[in-house]
Amino acid sequence: MTDPLETTWSPGRPVPIRLILGALRHGGGDPTWRADDDGVWRACVTPDGAGTLNLREHRDGVRARAWGAGAAWLLAGLPELLGGSDDPTGFTIRHDVLREPARRHTHWRVCRSRLVIDSLVPAIIEQRVTGVQAFGAYRQLVRRFGAPAPGPGADRGLMTPPSAADWKRIPSWEWLRAGVDPARSRTIMRAVDAAAALERAVDLPREQAWARLRSVPGVGLWTAAETAQRALGDADAVSFGDYHVAKDIGWALTGAPVDDVEMARLLEPYAGHRFRVQFLVSAGGLHRPRRGPRITLPGHLPVR
Question: Do 217 and 188 touch, CB atoms closer than 8 A?
Fold first, then answer.
């Protein structure tokens, strides 16, 4: 095993690594993400190749180690990954219910992974299905078509997701076997076909980046927002179209569930920081009471 590249990032404030990078975790069994006594581990495919990143909180800041061809790229982007480019200045709380979660999570920042396909593919898999089904599908596909993470990540069961080229090579029946219907798998194929252009969105102004994400047929407002929150570090990206988000934000801010139109009105005073409100409602446990049976999970395999 080669020695890791190492660095320390000291932003002069506490960095809640697990909370910030939790956005990049797709379910409890996500093979690309792990947290243990040695810190947070993440495996991904960078422009330079596969990489494993290990982060630990330290009194001097964040200690980082990285392995693999993508190690230098990962360490170079460490401040952005942990929200160093996220500026909460101007975020003014206008609803008292948000004050306590904002106080408890005062050092949370919006992560910016700079990896579009890394977040776009799982977001597409998560379209129109329950989290249980989506996370299971992503886990199955990564374990089957990903690769052991570089360095000690592999010993922890960590895997890198497929590259854009590897996603493209997955046959149609494997998508069905994982529970991903043809509409979503076709959208993923269109996205990975345009992977190079999509990855360049991280360097574009916000409106142009969003337009590029939305240029892929099948990538709607919700999918673009879920991707922008993670890959672009967009603090204004609201998950419109989500089954829970509008209802929960409405419940938290007004005492009653609302639809997307009313949520947009409620969030107008927070323009530029609307995703922060979405985060605080979720992190603060301010969601409406959950009632009723779980949604039945559909199947996509042919019936004989």
Answer: no
Q: Which pLDDT tens digit goes with each residue over 9-32?
A: 999 999 999 999 999 999 999 999
Q: Cα separations (Å) of 95 from 98, 193, 257, 267?
A: 6, 44, 16, 11
d(CA 274, CA 37): 34
Backbone φ, ψ for residue 78 (5° rounding) = -55, -45
Interatomic CA distance for residues 51 and 44, integer angstroms:
6
Strands, E assignment, 95-194: 147-148, 159-160
Contacting residues for 257 by C-beta, under 8 A, at least 6 apart: 246, 247, 248, 250, 251, 288
Q: Is the pLDDT of residue 277 over 70?
A: yes
Which of 37, 86, 42, 31 has the alpha carbon at shortest distance from 64?
42
